[in-house]
Amino acid sequence: MARDADHAADGPTGDARPSPDASATPDPLPDADRDAATLLADLRAARQRRADAEAAVEEHGEATLETVRDAVDRADRLLERYADSATGTGDFQAYVEFQGEFAGVVEGLDESTPGYDAFERANEAVDGRRLSESDFERAREALGPARDLAGRLAEREGAATAVYEAERDAQRRLDRLDDRIAELDRLVELGEADLDAPVENLRDPIAAYDDAVAAAFESFRREAPAREVLAFVAEAAETPFVDYTTPPPELVTFLDDVDAGTDPIPDLLEYADYSASKLDHYVADPGTFTARVRPHRTYLERLSADPLTVGWPPPAAETLRFQREELVSLVAKFADESVVARARALRGAADHPEYERLRRAAEAEAELSDAEFDRVASGAAADELAAARARRAALTDALDGE
């Protein structure tokens, strides 16, 4: 790379650079929400939490814990519903109903049910001739062990949600790493381009063609009937290497059927700004003209030769060869032979024996700043790429490690 000599002192190069260590190298995505190592730790913790929660449910069985949970819910509802009416000098009928229903919760459980003792103690707390708020509070506290058992089901659900969220976060980070790796790959590749390569061997014929076709199309757009220009664009839009947007069908149909279609596009755009009374002097049906042309004025204003140009940096040689065949055929429909000849000359550029080397140098000059060249020359870009790949590998292994 041409700039290597200028920046060799900026940092260690070649074999002198230590191999990157994913645990020690700074995260190459400083704008990311969290570091990959943190995501990995969260994912491992979430999966361990899920494993513990599933084991806790399996200890007694899901059906058994659902029975406990239902009983706790019923007991809690009774304690809440009768907290006022069944205490102190409240409603005697409510007191009797409460004690009967609460005892029924306990009696509905098998003595082997986990947490059964908790229900018994809770029942004893409210099995008195007169109840107070403190009795209800003691019953709630007594239900604690049963409530903890019932909570194992909720914990399992929460743990499963935590794993889902941790895996989602890791996958999002993985996607960002993929993008970053692609960027760094491109940076390293372009940073190693030969900036001394004679890119003018490609630039000169391409620029000559692009300038010529731009001028020719502008004349065509300015002078030819609008329906003729749109017919050309519609034909060009059908070709795979010329990226025109197909003209709006309703606009094409309208201009094919009215005298205004013989006017050039700049005149139509000027008409579109006229008042109805003024427009009446230029078109047969001002209302229809306004309804058909005005909604598409942006499309007409933006019609240019851009899809017919090659651009810089140029595409891959094979792409240019195919594109050149289409351009020769299309440009001949509106431009003179000198422009067509420049289109034909593109084949010579595409067949240049060092096309890819020259193209890579052109891309590097166009895309990379001096600072980016420095990062490649110093090895910083390669280190970042290695670190990003190491983080990607760790996240991928973790996500696949079910």
The proportion of strand residues reads under 5%
Distance between the termini: 45 Å
- Secondary structure class reads mainly alpha
- Low-pLDDT runs: 1-33
Biggest β-sheet description: none
> Could you report the average pLDDT, rounded to the nearest whole number?
85
Determine Rg (CA atoms, Å): 39 Å
Summarize the helix and strand pattern as letters. Answer: HHHHHHHHHHHHHHHHHHHH
- Annotation, overall tally of beta strands: 0
Helical content stands at: 55-70%
Rough outline: elongated
- What's the number of helices? 20
Short description:
The protein is mostly helical and 402 residues long. It has 20 helices and no strands.
What does this structure look like?
The protein has 20 helices and no strands. The model is unreliable at 1-33 (pLDDT under 50). It is mainly α. It has helices at residues 4-7, 36-60, 62-81, 92-107, 116-125, 133-142, 144-191, 200-223, 226-237, 249-257, 265-271, 276-279, 286-293, 297-302, 317-331, 337-344, 346-350, 355-367, 370-378, 380-399. Among the domains are: 46-152, Four Helix Bundle (Hemerythrin (Met), subunit A), CATH 1.20.120; 200-353, no CATH class. Helices cover 68% and strands 0% of the residues. Residues 1-35 are annotated as: Disordered. InterPro entries: DUF7118.
Keywords for this entry:
Four Helix Bundle (Hemerythrin (Met), subunit A), mainly alpha, single chain, 402 residues, 20 helices
Secondary-structure topology with pairs:
Elements: H1 4-7, H2 36-60, H3 62-81, H4 92-107, H5 116-125, H6 133-142, H7 144-191, H8 200-223, H9 226-237, H10 249-257, H11 265-271, H12 276-279, H13 286-293, H14 297-302, H15 317-331, H16 337-344, H17 346-350, H18 355-367, H19 370-378, H20 380-399
Helix pairs in contact: 2-7, 2-20, 3-4, 3-7, 4-5, 5-6, 7-20, 8-16, 15-16
